[in-house]
Amino acid sequence: MVVLEPPIGKLLGHDTITMPTLVICGKRKGPTLLVTAAIHGDEINGVEIVRRLLYASWARRVRGCLIAIPIVNVFGVMQRSRYLPDRRDLNRCFPGSASGSLGARMAHFLTEDVLKKVDMAIDLHTGAIGRTNLPQIRVSPDNPTAMEMALAFGAPVVLTSELKEGTFRNAGDALGIPVITYEAGEALRYDQPSIIAGVNGVRNVLEQVGMIRTRVRKKKIQPAVAPSSSWVRSPTDGFFRTVTQLGARIRKGDILGYVSGPLKMDETAIVAPFSGIIVGQNQIPQVYEGEALYHVARFERVTEAEAAVDKFQATMTDMIDIRD
């Protein structure tokens, strides 16, 4: 394994900040896969996923080349912040500019010096502060290669979503490089099931593209593909109390939770406006009218999606028991 430390900027005290990049090159030819984490500095699950990935014995037997950047946004991680020092979102700065803001320069380096040299990429994320995500893959529905990677990853849900300007995934698409995004857990928190699922997911993709030998094991989880998703928002101000769980199947008209005032006995019900699976959930009790509470993925066949989530959760429980 080779460790590169390209300089990306300086602190106010003139200390140089680098972006440690780890490279494992196999003895046999094959594709080049990039894994990135912490583009948002408070999304740290991916940092641990990359650490476990790099020190796994099977990762050292790759065909081709595995490149991993455990911390892209070093400034954000140091500040425990999603953003850069100038409050820019790095995941809205791509493809960047060599003479632009700090975010633009970082994005330019990652695009020109790394992304253009790989065949595919997996970008690791979590929910924002106060929001947790069910393990899921975000992918463009118009990129068949990326969709194959998404299905191979083995998360219970694949959310097809349009590309947003300035994102790392959009920069890859513009270059003809398939990029999938793994979303799982919550910012500033290590979540064991999300981390285990992330390591296994990267391994599944490495197997799918022929970079490592395929394991002999039970049938893989077949993820449910959601063509759309929407947020259910708070009907009023107050304190939020949920009665449903992340990953739960809901039906239109179900009561998902309640919002109440601190001194009032009456509560306002949060009613599901459509059916689906909860793939993201607010974790902070204090809410304002219109605030996002539940991220619900919609499926053509909700029963199949429910089965995929149940199987995934059972598998993760077994793996955690073995691991612990």
Describe the structure.
This protein is α+β, with helices and mostly antiparallel strands. The chain is 26% helix and 30% strand. It has 7 helices and 19 strands. The mean pLDDT is 93.
Task: List the main descriptive attributes of the protein structure presented here.
13-stranded mixed beta sheet; single chain; 324 residues; 26% helix; alpha+beta
Determine the N-to-C terminus distance: 28 Å
Runs in which pLDDT lies below 50 for 5 or more consecutive residues are none
Shape: globular
Helices and strands, in order, run as: EEEEEHEHHEEHEHEHEEEEEEEEEH
User: What does the main sheet amount to?
Assistant: 13 strands, mixed
Tell me the number of helical segments per DSSP (H or I, 4 or more residues long): 7
Query: Which structural class is indicated by helix and strand composition?
Result: alpha+beta
How many strands in all? Answer: 19
Helix content: 25-40%
What fraction of residues sit in β-strands? 25-35%
Question: What is the residue-mean pLDDT, rounded to a whole number?
Answer: 93
What is the radius of gyration computed over CA atoms, rounded to a whole number of angstroms?
Answer: 20 Å
